[in-house]
């Protein structure tokens, strides 16, 4: 039976077939759907962890405890999990352990471009990378076999294009992997004196993996008719086949360690060999280390952004990339925006009004940096806002506000808040509690009262938690209520110790909010004085039409924020208008 | 050997991704190799979304090269302009004659109301259909994506039975009849 599956769906299917028993991760585009899919299988115990390090630690425990395990994250998630990722290989695994890492070349939904392959090299962990959904399905199973055969964690690396491209997959049956007994050998898992013995063993393991790479059937040479040799992998391989089907292609499925001898033999057959890879010149660099020098790589195939068949054609054949005449037409962009009536609009219109310095974090609310708000002045990584605000304060900035979403706060903001409380840093943190992980598509988290598998769970009580770490000034407000929100933020700023405002209002896209009976607002044209104050929330339901502001009733969720901003009460509920 | 390239573009929430999934499923059912790659940013609504669907004997790249697209299905006029450079010279652009003003982030440029003429002037075979209106007629404006698929179906080598089978397989029971009507409404556009 042939099925249409995305790369992410195919990986989950492969992991299920491989007998995975435990899976954990934290949402992050483009990796999120893997764990969501895994949770759909009865045999797999899958859950969202508070962050990627927690997921990784849980994964280590589960794999040592004998259960085949997958942990999932995006590239920046691996940064968070880097600590266990670097140390686990010294011990080695018991049952199969695969970490899925999804890179995002082109930064479709990330703050940076980061080539995770280097991370695996530092950790001395093998990397497998598929080239389409069908391969992702098969190779996931291979990853578990490899992990158990060499007792090593395996990095399964994908990119946005692989994750989000659907193709034909032939699913198979699940094969149960019996639980493996854990042997309590401290010499394998603890203290530096033992780790020193493990260190050369790790190198010996890598040597064995190098031998394996020479035989691995996922590293395959596809002979072509033309006298052109190309080394490629993953999605770039597809572009190569698209634009130069006549070339001989050495397609790498195992990216680290590489099959040194096979590559040397292949490259010796040609005057020069193209290395076509996305992001950095990782393979090219490894080959240079082998002394293979007749190579053309990053000089022709940019390390910036995503490759495409057009860019690969340009690099291989010198073909010009056809112009994008949309650029000449000077057409309007269509950027993503906060939804109509989004509660974040209330917080950011208030912050703009107050003119304070705002350190931001990762979520939908990062859009607060754009007009009409311009009310977010830094954004770096998950959980950074609170620490950044503390630093600004120490540098002498008095009015600093940190904004952080509920899921992000639990991910890695909490430890910074504890630090701010401990050091009594007088900054104000606004916890944007919309009751979900909004940006990645509404995943559950410890504050939601539900798990990934749909079970009810204790929901974090933010106010009690924040008070318990030693912060006395805590206030809960409804961000749709602009006056109260403004007063609470001002009060927090005036307080001479750390303060927290919990802005609580569920995301409008949650099912129960969507189902809620709504009464829209409307502008009464006769009363409108055209002051444009209502536009301060930037709501997409509010537009200019027939020379006055107009509310698109079908988009309005009845938040009332524009009506509150109107100085002459010219915006009223449709029932009254 | 020949691969058919379709690009489906729209605004977040219009169903561009569902339309491309339906096309990909129909192509599989018709015995073809398929790749369908979608492009969208973070999950907020209202941004531009587009998706490549490629089918034939053997498909490699998830996205067509610029100038290789046979059919562009645009759920919105501005998005037709934005992605038309992917279409081959003289290729077909099926446009929903429907305007969704983008939310302006400090950008005062006018909406290009002459999008359809501009594309005709560039030599494309433009088929403008008010799919949103047709969708409203059959019961819901959100079915405009399936109306446009119906228009496209007239030009593809995929039998009507396969399309119907695909709709039955993918669309939930309570929305099936609506979508079947939307598909027929589009299918009839070029039948006269």
Counting helices, strands and paired strands, the structural category of chain B is alpha/beta
State the total count of DSSP E strands of chain B.
Answer: 6
Q: Name the chain pair with the biggest interface and residue counts per chain.
A: A-B, 52 and 50 residues
Total E-strand runs of chain A: 23
Shape of chain A: globular
Radius of gyration of chain B: 16 Å
- Give the tally of structural domains of chain A: 4
Helix segment tally of chain A: 22
The structural class of chain A is: alpha/beta
User: Mind telling me the C-alpha Rg of chain A?
Assistant: 27 Å
**Hey, roughly how much beta strand do the residues of chain A contain?**
15-25%
In whole angstroms, the N-to-C terminal distance of chain A is: 58 Å
Can you tell me the residue ranges of chain A where pLDDT is under 50 for at least 5 consecutive residues? none
Task: Tell me the layout of helices and strands.
The complex is a heterodimer of chains A (577) and B (192).
Chain A: E1 3-6, H1 7-17, E2 22-25, H2 32-38, E3 45-48, H3 52-64, E4 69-74, H4 75-80, H5 82-91, E5 97-103, H6 117-123, E6 127-128, H7 133-149, E7 154-159, H8 160-164, E8 165-169, H9 186-189, H10 192-215, E9 220-222, E10 229-233, H11 234-243, E11 248-252, E12 254-256, H12 260-268, E13 273-276, H13 282-289, E14 295-296, H14 309-317, H15 325-328, H16 343-354, E15 357-359, H17 384-394, E16 400-405, H18 406-422, E17 428-433, H19 462-468, E18 473-477, H20 482-494, E19 499-504, H21 511-515, E20 521-523, E21 542-545, E22 548-551, H22 561-565, E23 571-573
Parallel strand pairs in A: 2-3, 2-4, 4-5, 5-7, 6-7, 10-11, 10-13, 13-14, 15-16, 16-17, 17-19, 18-19
Antiparallel strand pairs in A: 1-8, 6-12, 9-11, 20-23, 21-22
Helix pairs in contact in A: 1-2, 1-7, 3-5, 5-6, 11-14, 16-20, 17-18
Chain B: E1 3-11, H1 16-29, E2 33-39, E3 48-56, E4 69-74, H2 77-83, E5 87-96, H3 115-121, E6 125-129, H4 131-138, H5 144-153, H6 160-170, H7 173-187
């Amino acid at each position: 039976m042939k099925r249409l599956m995305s790369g992410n769906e195919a990986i989950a299917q492969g992991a299920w077939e491989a007998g995975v028993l435990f899976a954990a991760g934290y949402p992050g585009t483009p990796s999120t759907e893997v764990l969501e899919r895994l949770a759909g299988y009865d045999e797999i115990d899958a859950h969202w962890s508070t962050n990627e390090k927690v997921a990784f630690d849980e994964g280590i425990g589960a794999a040592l405890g004998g259960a085949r395990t997958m942990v999932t994250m995006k590239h920046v998630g691996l940064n968070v999990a880097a600590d266990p990722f670097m140390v686990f290989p010294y011990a080695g695994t018991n049952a199969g352990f695969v970490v899925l890492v999804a890179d995002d070349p082109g930064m479709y939904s990330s703050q940076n471009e980061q080539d995770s392959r280097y991370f695996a090299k530092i950790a001395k962990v093998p990397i497998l990378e598929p080239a389409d959904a069908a391969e992702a399905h098969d190779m996931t199973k291979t990853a578990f076999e490899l992990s158990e055969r060499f007792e090593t964690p395996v990095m399964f690396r994908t990119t946005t294009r692989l994750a989000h491209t659907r193709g034909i997959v032939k699913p198979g049956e699940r094969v149960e992997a019996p639980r493996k007994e854990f042997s309590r050998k401290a010499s394998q898992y603890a203290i530096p004196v033992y780790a020193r013995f493990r260190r050369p063993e790790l190198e010996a393991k890598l040597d064995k993996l190098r031998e394996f790479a020479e035989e691995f059937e996922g590293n395959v040479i596809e002979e072509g008719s033309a006298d052109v040799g190309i080394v490629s992998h993953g999605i770039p391989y597809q572009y190569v086949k698209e634009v130069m089907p006549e070339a001989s292609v050495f397609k790498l499925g195992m990216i680290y360690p590489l099959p040194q001898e096979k590559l040397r033999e292949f490259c010796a057959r040609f005057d020069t060999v193209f290395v076509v890879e996305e992001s950095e010149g990782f393979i090219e660099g490894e080959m240079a280390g082998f002394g293979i020098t007749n190579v053309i790589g990053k000089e022709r195939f940019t390390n910036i952004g995503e490759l495409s068949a057009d860019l690969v054609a340009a690099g291989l054949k010198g073909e010009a990339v056809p112009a994008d005449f949309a650029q000449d037409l000077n057409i309007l962009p269509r950027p993503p925006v906060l939804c109509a009536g989004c509660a974040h609009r209330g917080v950011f219109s208030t912050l703009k009004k107050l003119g304070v310095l705002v350190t931001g974090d990762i979520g939908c609310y990062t859009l607060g940096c754009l007009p009409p708000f311009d009310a977010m002045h830094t954004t770096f990584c998950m959980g950074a806002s609170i620490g950044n605000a503390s630093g600004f304060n120490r540098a002498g900035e008095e009015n600093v506000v940190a904004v952080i979403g509920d899921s992000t706060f639990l991910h890695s903001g909490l430890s910074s808040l504890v630090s701010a409380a401990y050091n009594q840093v007088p900054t104000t943190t606004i916890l944007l509690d919309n009751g979900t992980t909004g940006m990645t598509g509404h995943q559950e988290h410890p504050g939601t009262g539900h798990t990934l598998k749909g079970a009810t769970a204790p929901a974090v009580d933010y106010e009690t938690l924040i008070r318990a770490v030693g912060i006395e000034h805590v206030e809960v407000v409804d961000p749709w209520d602009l006056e109260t929100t403004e007063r609470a933020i001002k009060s927090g700023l005036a307080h001479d110790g750390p303060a927290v405002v919990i802005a609580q209002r569920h995301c409008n896209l949650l099912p129960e909010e969507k189902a809620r009976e709504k009464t829209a607002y409307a502008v009464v044209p006769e009363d409108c004085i055209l002051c444009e104050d209502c536009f301060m929330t930037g709501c997409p339901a509010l537009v200019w039409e027939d020379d006055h502001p107009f509310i698109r009733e079908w988009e309005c969720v009845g938040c009332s924020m524009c009506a509150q901003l109107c100085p002459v009460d010219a915006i009223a509920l449709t029932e009254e208008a | 050997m020949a691969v058919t390239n379709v690009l489906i573009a729209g605004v977040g929430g219009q169903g561009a991704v569902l339309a491309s999934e339906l096309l990909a499923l129909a192509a599989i059912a018709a015995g073809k190799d398929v790749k369908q790659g979608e492009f969208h940013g973070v999950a907020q609504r209202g941004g531009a979304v587009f998706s490549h669907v490629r089918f034939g004997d053997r498909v490699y790249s998830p996205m067509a090269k610029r100038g290789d697209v046979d059919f562009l299905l645009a759920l919105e006029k501005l998005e037709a302009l934005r992605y038309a450079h992917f279409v081959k010279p003289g290729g077909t652009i099926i446009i929903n004659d429907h305007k969704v003003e983008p939310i302006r982030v400090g950008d005062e440029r006018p909406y290009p109301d002459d999008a359809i003429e501009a594309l005709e002037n560039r030599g494309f075979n433009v088929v403008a259909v008010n799919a949103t209106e047709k969708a409203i007629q059959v019961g819901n404006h959100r079915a405009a994506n399936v109306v446009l698929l119906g228009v496209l179906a007239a030009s593809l080598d995929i039998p009507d039975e396969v399309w119907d089978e695909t709709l039955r397989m993918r669309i939930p029971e309570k929305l099936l009849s609506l979508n079947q009507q939307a598909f027929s409404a589009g299918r009839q556009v070029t039948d006269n």
